[in-house]
Design goal:
The structure holds two protein chains of two kinds. By secondary structure, chain A is α+β, with helices and mostly antiparallel strands. Chain A contains three helices and six strands, in the order βββααββαβ. In chain A, the strands form two sheets. In chain A, strands 2-3-5-4 form a four-stranded antiparallel sheet. In chain A, strands 1-6 form a two-stranded antiparallel sheet. The radius of gyration of chain A is 14 Å and the shape is elongated. The mean pLDDT of chain A is about 95. Chain B is α+β, with helices and mostly antiparallel strands. Helices cover about 30% and strands about 30% of the residues of chain B. In chain B, the strands form three sheets. A ten-stranded mixed sheet of chain B has the order 12-13-9-8-1-2-3-7-4-19, sandwiched between helices. In chain B, strands 5, 6, 15, 16, 17 and 18 form a six-stranded antiparallel sheet that branches. In chain B, a hairpin with a 4-residue loop joins strand 8 and strand 9 (about 230-235). The chains are: A alpha+beta, B alpha+beta. At the A-B interface, strand 2, strand 3, strand 4 and strand 5 of A face helix 10, strand 16 and strand 18 of B.
Amino acid sequence: MKKTRLMDLAHIIRSKNSGPYELTLDVFFKTEKIYQTVKKRNLINKTLIKRLYRVEENRILDIIYFDPVRAVKATIARPIPSGAVEDTDVYGAQQHMPLVDAIINF
Amino acid sequence: MDEIRILSPTAILGYGFPRESFLRGMKASPHVIAVDAGSSDPGPFYLGHGKSFVDRNAVKRDLEIMITQGKKHGIPVIIGTAGGSGAKVHVDWCMEIIREIVRAHRLRLRTALVYSDVEKKTVIQNLQKKKIRPLPFAPSLTPKIVRNTTRVVAQIGVDPLIKALSKPVDLVVAGRCYDPAVFAALPVKEGFDLGLALHLGKILECAAIAASPGSGRDCVLGILKKNSFILQTLSPNRRFTVNSVAAHTLYEKSHPFILPGPGGHLDLSQCRFRQKTPNSVEVSGSQFVPDTPCTVKIEGAVCVGYRTISICGIRDRIMIRQLDDIFAAVREAVKNNFGVRDYRLNFRVYGRDGVMGPLEPAPQEIGHEAGVIIDVVAATQEEANTICGFTRSTALHYGYPGRIATAGNLAFPFSPSDTPMGAVYEFSIYHLMDIAGPSNLFPVKSMILN
């Protein structure tokens, strides 16, 4: 195991609204081998998402691995709904950098 | 009928498409041209205020090509979520554009119109009968919130559209639709599998976004067969690949393979993706699972005030280091000055946490300059103007500790420095409502446009 940046393991890391109240985060891994290792050891998990996005566990809807595309999806509650007065990102498309910079024990 | 060919010109009506791609698509003899004209993604304003988020001329340009070509080849054009948000005001806006095209080209169009507005009293009745529940993380609903909501739309599924297609038509214009519905309606009417048709629609509604390289403004063709569907690009520089199509399945969805919609959900866990030719992909195994009771998603937005903003920049390092203290002092100085208490003042600092707000992991890191938006929302436009102007002038000349530049604290790129932004809306309804049958709420209106 060594400390590895998530961006070195993935070829797509993105965020987007899923409706006005949810932010969904997708990570697509570079190879089947990397994906299987991450999945087997559950390296993208609630503890990581809680830490990166400072959300309570009950604000994490789901974290699901999807084999056909070698990806994992985490969906969390938006801190502020899309377009509400204090919102900063109506489409939710620029909330991915905490994951890009995340360091995991790979 | 062995297969149905569906031409999807663009991801959102008005986002445009190359004419050559469209004509290449027409050469494949499609059975229908369908387009998704809207989204809730641009935020609550457009639904709440009854405006389109796409420019009128851009919508007209796309529609002109689609309608004249559809008529010429005798195939229907189906438009879903007309006008961007799909309420009556939006649909009527789209119809006005269509009437201009009909006049200019001397067309005769057999047209079916499906509004998907839900009356507020129906929502309140259903709320009292406990037939409405919030989607995850949406706040709960009260009759008062419903009354304050400007208009309510339901995301309709394929059933009202199938009814619209039951008579020969040249054009179907529908209010708020579940995005895939406009693509799936004709195939389902012809007896094709609902799961495959909706999954195909899910990809076609984004046009070439699911191709590689992706684009929201290029045409693609979907070919639905009995046990699979095929996606084909229509410009030589784009391909559908197994990766690009499969990856799109996850796009802006809460769950990677369970996709809820009107009347049931799509289960894509058994899906198979196969590279058919270098630029086309075949998909099979998509399943539709009906839900009981039958539900539709309803959406509404409420006006929460009026906004005025002032955009400015700061280059002074001494000031940038103590921004929060300075803004707190300015906020205090503005308070109680005009007897206006009901306002929200927000200093948005770009270069620090302007993009991520409370999610920003490094709010302490800031560069040599900062962009600031003074953002005020108040009960009236006049009050918002007053608070914003006063905050701006107070911040401009505020004497903070260690100040070395005494002429002014803010750089304004524009004169006037302050901009009234008009009404501000927030989503108030984003709920599921139980309905008796799939289409009884949404009658079809037939007419001839000429």
